[in-house]
Amino acid sequence: MTTHAAMQQATLLATSLPLGTVDARPARGSIKNLPVNLFAAVMGLSGLAMGWRFAHTAFGVSRVVADAIGLFATFLFVVLAIGYGAKLLRHPAAVKAEFHHPIAGNFFGTIAIALLLQSAVLGVYDSTLGHVLWTIGTVLTLLLALHVVSRLLGGNGDPKHAVPAWIIPGVAALDIVVTGSHVPMAWAGEVLLLSIAVGSVLALVMFTMICTRLIQHEPLAPAMTPSLMILVAPFEVGFTAYTNLTGRVDQFAGLLFYFGLFLFVALAPKVFRRSVPFGAGWWAISFPLAAMVNAALKYASVHPTLPLRLLAGVSLVALTAALLVLMVRTLHILFNGRLLAN
After folding, report:
1. Is residue 291 within 8 Å of 47, Cβ to Cβ?
2. Taking the model in full, what pTM does it have?
3. Exposure winner among 60, 106, 169, 199, fewest CB in 10 A?
4. Judging by beta carbons within 10 Å of its beta carbon (0-12, 13-18, 19+), is residue 198 exposed, middle or buried?
5. pLDDT digits (tens, 9 = 90+) for 285-303
6. How many CB atoms lie within 10 A of CB 187?
């Protein structure tokens, strides 16, 4: 095995992205191998529920779809939280290794973002529950961002570790603003400013480092290819965070939205290929695309031209279909043992 191939395989294993076709032996599942990046499924489904809810408010679409998807996302979050809690109790060394890994550790941000998005999903039913979840998610997000920055500034970092997952802690900080614009606590306004400052600068720095790595070093391993879509997230989540904070959809917001859309068009041919093996890592496409759909819906509600309304509507339906496919395929590899395989 070449040095490059060994590095790719080690990276894939460390980030819990199933290789699928690497080992033809019967798969044996263990909770030890539950990948933390599966919480991205909660993020994507919660974002999709928020998209259908926005479509209900702005365009009169039935709210039943939004409620069903949102409650399913909540159920999935509870199941994953129990599963990962069991992994922490039974295999603490595996969780510790995952958390301190320079790539996999960033995926712990998906837990914090899932909490933040769930605060928005459940807050319409119980505002107190929504505020509690938002507060917990905010604290976890800022602590994770602090940990990531502290680790990076420690030096001796490998440029090849600069992969799209690095953006997740920055996007998580932006999601504090996305989900907390209506939080009533007196201190919330300053926390929102802190969060958008941390999130925007972190996302910008990480985006630059990741693009440099993608340009100057080897391409990502095939199983990590779907994570390229994470590059869309800072701009589309940034759009919603900025418009929520300022209360307006101005030209700067439009720049963020359109550049995110441009990135999606540029990255889609690289990601949606038959040669990319399916695994838990495919859920990395769900939350940036959900952010893009929500941004499109909000932008179209302010600029209601026919092309923008069509773009928003078609994107929402397409995302719904895509997440349904991801769910079915994930259940398939769960039941055949590959999802939790060694």
Report:
1. yes
2. 0.86
3. 60
4. buried
5. 999 999 999 999 999 999 9
6. 8
